[in-house]
Amino acid sequence: MKKKLEGINVLYPTPHGAGRSDGGRQTQLYHHRPHRNCQPRQALSDFAKHGKSSLHQSGHQGKQSFQRQHPSENLVVETDYAGLVSGKKTDKSDLFEIFYGELENAPMIKECPLNMECRLYDTYDTPTHDLFIGEIVETYADESVLTEGKVDLAKLKPLLFDMNSVKYWSVGEVVAGCWNVGKQLKQ
Question: Does the pTM of the predicted model rise above 0.85?
């Protein structure tokens, strides 16, 4: 069962998936470089690097929304496949079960334990791709990946993509507390 967490940014693990509805067909695409912007505004950016005519790119602009899916390591085969094949040539609508949230036009993957839906805020046109800026409207997490109402990465077991080794990884043990461990170097 998905639990609403409000529009919080739980972004860092990659890859993330994005999808759109194309005349009843769901298309899923996996990226490996999500970006976090504007902490107070809770915004995300996304990009369509697959050309100006890709299903992914047209879905952002046509629906004025996009979403993030964060697969766990148990979805590595499906995640890799979704990134390997084009939605223009391959119907990927049976690959995952889809659900809709607050925006009602941003298809999200039920099997992914963490999903974020975003309202399109702005689009930046570059020579090679479009960059989409969006406001996080709602974050959904399976209750099984929460500890005290917050996403627990040890339970999430996020799938991580390493461009250098071209391999998928998962997380290990906690190393240190953020914005804390470095205080020992302050004088």
Answer: no
Look at residue 186 and give its three-state secondary structure. coil
DSSP three-state, residue 142: strand
CA–CA separation, 155 and 110 (whole Å): 17
Q: What is the pLDDT of residues 25-35, one digit of tens each?
A: 555 444 444 44
The radius of gyration computed from the CA coordinates of the chain, to the nearest angstrom, equals 17
Q: Report in angstroms the alpha-carbon separations of 20 from 25, 162, 183.
A: 8, 25, 44
User: Coil, helix or strand for 106?
Assistant: coil
Domain boundaries, the chain: 2-185
Tell me the torsion sign for CA atoms 29, 32, 33, 39: positive
pLDDT in the model for residue 48 = 56
What class is the 2-185 domain? mainly beta
Residues 25-60, buried b or exposed e (16+ Cβ, 10 A)? ebbbbbbeebeeeeeeebbbbbbbebeeebbbbebb
Per residue in 63-78, pLDDT tens? 788 888 889 999 999 9
